[in-house]
Design brief:
Layout lengths: L3 H29 L9 H9 L5 E10 L5 E12 L4 E11 L8 E13 L2 E6 L3 E5 L2 E5 L1 E5 L4 E5 L3 E4 L2 H4 L14
Antiparallel strand pairs: 1-2, 2-3, 3-4, 4-5, 4-6, 5-8, 6-7, 7-10, 8-9
Organism: Prosthecobacter fluviatilis
Keywords: Membrane, Transmembrane, Transmembrane helix
Protein name: LPS export ABC transporter periplasmic protein LptC
Length: 183
């Protein structure tokens, strides 16, 4: 015979599963009607609105699409927990932002992070070693703050950066190679 606590645990799991399912269905309906919210953080914002505070989601995968159906972002995490009405805590968070040109794709890897809604965007913070990858550079630092509304980030502490092609990051035009006189 199952205990009362076990029965409540099953009920709570079903409630979370139902909440997520309804959120996904509502999101698909909004997308089909063209009412999807704009902005690069619509996946996390939608997740924040459909999950009750205290809910823990393991193996989370949150895609985000633009109005044409092109995938713009993919958020994955080993664990996401909604802390309160405006914050989510994540472990082993990976945020992949996709551009029309794959050279401009960005990947952010964070061991732990907090995401806080702020007006039309949100702030992603991590106080542990963070890694950002782009086709032109790789950067690691001890902490990261990323503003999704402004699409700008700041990394601090023991920073290590590798720039693969500095001409791609600057507006300078490389000089043509000088010809050497022949003998």
């Amino acid at each position: 015979m199952a205990s009362f606590a076990t029965s409540l645990e099953r009920l709570y799991r079903r409630r979370i599963a139902l909440s997520i399912t309804l959120g996904v269905v509502a999101g698909l309906a909004m997308f089909a009607l063209g009412q999807q919210s704009s902005g690069s953080d619509s996946g996390m914002a939608a997740f924040l609105q459909m999950v009750p505070p205290g809910a823990v989601n393991k193996g989370a995968v949150i895609p985000s699409f633009d109005s044409t159906g092109r995938r713009t972002m993919l958020i994955t995490a080993d664990m996401l927990r909604r802390v309160d009405d405006e914050r989510i805590y994540a472990e082993n968070l990976v945020v992949q932002m996709f551009s029309a040109d794959p050279k401009n794709d960005v990947r952010i890897d964070l061991k732990t992070a907090f995401y806080q809604m702020a007006g039309t965007g949100g702030i992603l913070r991590s106080t542990q070693r963070s890694h950002v990858r782009h086709a032109d550079f790789d950067i690691e630092g001890d902490s990261l703050i990323y503003d999704t509304a402004k699409n700008q980030g700041r990394m601090t502490g023991n920073i290590h950066m590798v720039i693969f092609d500095s001409s791609a990051l600057s507006s300078e035009v490389p000089r043509p190679a000088e010809s050497r006189p022949t003998k």
